[in-house]
Every structure is written in structure tokens, then in C-alpha cells.
TrEMBL record:
Keywords: Hydrolase, Magnesium. This is HAD family hydrolase. SUPFAM superfamilies: HAD-like. The keyword Magnesium applies. One of its GO terms (biological process) is small molecule metabolic process. GO terms for molecular function: hydrolase activity. Pfam families: HAD_2 (PF13419). It comes from the Bacteria. Its cofactor is Mg(2+).
Length: 186
């Protein structure tokens, strides 16, 4: 995306309401660790093998809501797991059925900070960047690279309180995000 197109996109993006953003997009990418499922620091190895897993609070109602109107995908930087192992973790959490596919570092050969990570996903989806929303918990890997590619973005992270979110939406919780969406808005 050229600098002029990028600046125009950022200007348009900051003027759209949250409901408008969801109505404009067809695809929603979700980060995995600490966006969909809690990434416990005291566990190591593959999440599907952990003795305990847990969804991030409030994510299930959002998945249920968006699955009727959007194609949902996982876009993760996870290094320990491949697509089948991520699917196994999602199945343990009873959310695998919401997702059309999973884009992960092992499959793509790229990390989210690689300039071609999000463009590779856009090519695989055969769509335009402005049709895609990224939801994640990290500005550096989830939000900024997505915005630089032309995607819309939502940060969901309670630990970040002083976020300058003029180019993306920021919510502390999924419950806060859901409260901004009226029942018939999508």
C-alpha cells in the first residue's frame, strides 16, 4: 500500500464507527494467545496438551455473533504449534467450529512482524485488505502490521490503559466491545 493510500485509509478508518467497520468487513482474523485463549506463562509446549485451557472472557459471545455475518480465521504467531495442534486446542475450548482456517507461523513461514505476513493472508483469502478486520491483544504484532497492510484493527487488552487509539479501536474486554454493538447491527 502506498504512503498516500495508507494515509487516506487511516483517515477513513478513524472516521468509521465500530458498527460501520464490521459492516464493511467480510473477514475477521483473531489472534490466538491471549485473544481467543489465555496463554498461561507457567505452561510450556503445545497448548492443546496443557492440563488446563481457558477462553478469554467474553470471546464466545463475540464469536457466536460474528459467525453469522463474517468468515472467521485464526492468525497467530505461535511458535510451538502447527495448524492441527492449534485446531486441537480450539476443539478443547469448543470454538474450532467457528473458524474457516488457521494462519500460523509454521504454515506461512512468516511471523506477524514480517512485512509479507498479512499480505500473504490477504492473497490466500482472495480479498482486499479493507474487507478484513484483525482482532488482537498486542499493538506491535497484531495491530500495527495489520494497519500497515490496510486491514482494520481492534485491540482487546485490559493491561494497556494509555493507548493512543486514533487509528484503531481499543477495548479492555470483549464485553466492552460487545456493548458497542447493538443486537441487530451486524
Amino acid at each position: 500500500m502506498s504512503l498516500i493510500n495508507s494515509l487516506h485509509f487511516m483517515s477513513v478508518h478513524s472516521q468509521l464507527s465500530l458498527v460501520d467497520l464490521f459492516q464493511q468487513t467480510d473477514v475477521v482474523l483473531f489472534d490466538w494467545g491471549n485473544t481467543l485463549m489465555l496463554d498461561f506463562p507457567h505452561y510450556s509446549g503445545k497448548m492443546y496438551q496443557w492440563p488446563y485451557i481457558e477462553l478469554v472472557a467474553g470471546v464466545m459471545p463475540l464469536l457466536e455473533r460474528l459467525s453469522d455475518s463474517h468468515r472467521l480465521y485464526v492468525a497467530t504467531n505461535a511458535q510451538d504449534s502447527d495448524k492441527s495442534e492449534i485446531t486441537a486446542a480450539l476443539e478443547r475450548a469448543s470454538i474450532a467450529s467457528f473458524f474457516t482456517d488457521i494462519f500460523c507461523q509454521r504454515e506461512l513461514g512468516l511471523t506477524k512482524t514480517d512485512n509479507d505476513y498479512y499480505p500473504a493472508i490477504i492473497r490466500a483469502l482472495a480479498c482486499q485488505p479493507q474487507q478484513v478486520m484483525m482482532i488482537g491483544d498486542t499493538i506491535k504484532t497484531d495491530i500495527m502490521p495489520a494497519l500497515q497492510t490496510g486491514l482494520f484493527a481492534i485491540l482487546v487488552n485490559a493491561g494497556l490503559s494509555n493507548v493512543q487509539a486514533d487509528r484503531f479501536y481499543h477495548f479492555a474486554t470483549f464485553d466492552q466491545l460487545m456493548a458497542k454493538l447493538s443486537p441487530d447491527s451486524l
